[in-house]
Structures are given as C-alpha cells and as structure tokens.
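Dear H.,

Thanks for agreeing to be a second pair of eyes. The structure we're designing against is below in token form, covering all 329 positions.
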C-alpha cells in the first residue's frame, strides 16, 4: 500500500505540467483556427448589423487580444472556473457536468467488457498455445480488430434494431417514458447494449491477442519450468504464475488505449445519438464555442490522467518491483 501511495503522489505531481501543456496548447490551437462564436452565430441567424456584432464581441470577450483572453482564461482556471459557454449561455462546467455521466457510463462499461472478457478469452487461448482453440480465437480477434468501431455499430443497429427489433436504435433512454427506479435502469441498459458492444468489442480483440501472446512467451520462462518440475497443478500454474505475469502488459495497454477509446466514444455517441461529452465537443466545434471546447479538452485530459493513475496503482499491486526504492517509476 505504501508503494502505491508513493507512486500515486509522484504521478499527481507529474500530472500538473501535463494539464498546463494541454491548457496552453489547446488555447493556442483554437486561437489559430479561423472564425469565432460570433461568426457561427451570424451564420446561424442570417447576419446582424455592425453594432450588434460589436455588442456580441464585447459581451463574449472576443473584442480583446489573444494574450488578454489567455490571461483571463488562466485566471479563471486558477479559480476552478472553466468559463461561459456562448452556445448554451451557461457556465461550461454545468454543461459538461450534465453530459459527462453518459460518457463515463459508456466508457466504463465498454472498458469492463473489453478488458474483462478479452483477458479471460486470452487466458483461455494462451493456456495451450498452438491448440485449435488458440488458433480459432486468434484469427477471430484479428478479424474483429480490423473492423472500424463506427462500422460495427452500424452493423449492430441494422441487425438488432432494424431487422430483429430487439433493441432501440439510439439514445440513452426512452424519451418521456416516465419510468423510474428499476424500470428506468433496465431501459437505460437496453439502450446502452449496442453502443457498449460497438465500442468495446474492438478493444476486446486487442486485449485477447495481447494476453494470449504474453502467456505464450511466459510459458518459455525458467520459473514456469521450475514450477512444472515441482508438480504444481496446471490450473494453479496457469492462473497464479503464467496469467498473472502476462497481465502486466495488458494493464499497461489499458492505460495507453483509454485515450483512444475516449476519442472513439465521440464517433459512437454520434452513431447512437447519445448525449455525451463526445457529441458536446462536436456541438462546440460547430458553434465555435471555444470556452466549451477548451473545457471538454481539459476534462478529457483529467479523465485520461486519472485512468493512468489507476493503471499505475494496479501495476504496483501486480508487480512488487514497481514503485519500490531504486526502481524507475
């Protein structure tokens, strides 16, 4: 536990400059993009006179120079204020807080599906490398991993929502259903089955393949031969010696792939019309809502950093050498 806490403290200290780089880099990148929120407003409303345009720019703080806007933005961040959304006319933090739970639920379930089922299938395949089940699972995983997530989502919609009519096409829950308690929970679960499957199955194939390959390499290690020579039962040998050591690179990949899964959720939320942070980012881009887009980027960075912190802690639990004195963290 002490090693995990020390490692957590190191990672938290290292996360501060990462967030600063994200904030500065995102601000400069968006400043370099053409157009602003007033231009998007004029395009949507059919234009306005010059006096109204000047009022809007002054009201939304767009009449100041880039340096002044950045200093104001940095001062607001120091107070925990993500700014004001010009598209929704509300604080950015409130807008993101409404959409964030949907994205976290989607990604949490997809991650659990991909990591849990993928690792178990990888253990099943890697228990006997070169066997028929190993070859069948390996070929299937390669085929699934080659599928784009959005294409898989569309195929699932056609099969299970359009043809069979077993599941809803999209949305997070039935609109104006009046359901509550367990009925609402089950309704949300039905709506999430297809998006979770389309987002998680592709990564499931990745974890299956990685777990299988790691186990195949560990079977060749001397300590496995020694365990065999001592007569350790095969099930115990697989689970406690081979699979546990093979799990380390899979856990590492989980932290590395979470950022790309967050990016993939934007596409999945668009395909299934889920009101999450991904769709919110697209709305912010279309409205040129820079404060909202900056807020989405920062919150996304915080989520990725948090997941990597949890990954480091899990790694320290699995491998006693991680985080100990004299080893690189």
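And this is the sequence the design step returned. I haven't edited it by hand at all.
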């Amino acid at each position: 536990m002490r090693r995990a806490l020390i490692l957590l403290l190191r990672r938290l200290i290292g996360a501060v400059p990462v967030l600063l780089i994200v904030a500065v880099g995102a601000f400069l990148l968006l400043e370099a993009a053409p157009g602003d929120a007033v231009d998007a407003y004029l395009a949507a409303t059919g234009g306005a006179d010059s006096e109204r345009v000047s009022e809007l720019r002054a009201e939304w703080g767009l009449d100041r120079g880039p340096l002044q806007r950045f200093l104001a933005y940095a001062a607001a961040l120091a107070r925990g204020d993500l700014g004001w959304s010009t598209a929704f006319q509300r604080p950015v933090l409130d807008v993101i807080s409404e959409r964030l739970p949907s994205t976290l639920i989607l990604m949490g379930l997809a991650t659990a599906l991909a990591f849990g089922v993928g690792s178990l299938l990888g253990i099943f395949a890697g228990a006997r490398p070169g066997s028929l089940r190993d070859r069948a699972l390996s070929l299937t995983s390669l085929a699934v991993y080659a599928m784009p997530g959005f294409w898989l989502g569309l195929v699932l919609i056609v099969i299970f929502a359009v043809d069979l009519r077993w599941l809803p096409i999209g949305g997070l829950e039935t609109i104006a259903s009046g359901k509550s308690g367990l009925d609402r929970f089950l309704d949300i679960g039905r709506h999430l089955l297809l998006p979770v499957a389309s987002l998680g199955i592709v990564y499931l194939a990745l974890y299956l393949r990685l777990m299988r390959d790691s186990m195949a390499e560990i079977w060749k290690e001397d300590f496995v031969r020694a365990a065999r020579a001592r007569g350790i039962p095969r099930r115990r040998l697989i689970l406690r010696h081979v699979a546990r050591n093979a799990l380390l690179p899979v856990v590492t990949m989980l932290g590395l792939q979470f950022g790309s899964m967050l990016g993939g959720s934007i596409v999945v939320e668009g395909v299934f019309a889920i009101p999450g942070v991904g769709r919110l980012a697209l709305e912010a881009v279309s409205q040129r809502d820079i404060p909202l887009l900056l807020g989405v980027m920062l919150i996304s960075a915080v989520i990725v950093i948090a997941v990597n912190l949890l990954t480091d802690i899990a790694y320290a639990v699995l491998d006693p050498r991680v985080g100990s004195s004299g080893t690189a963290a």
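Two observations from my side: The chain has a mean pLDDT of 83. Strands lie at 84-85, 90-91.

Warmly,
E.
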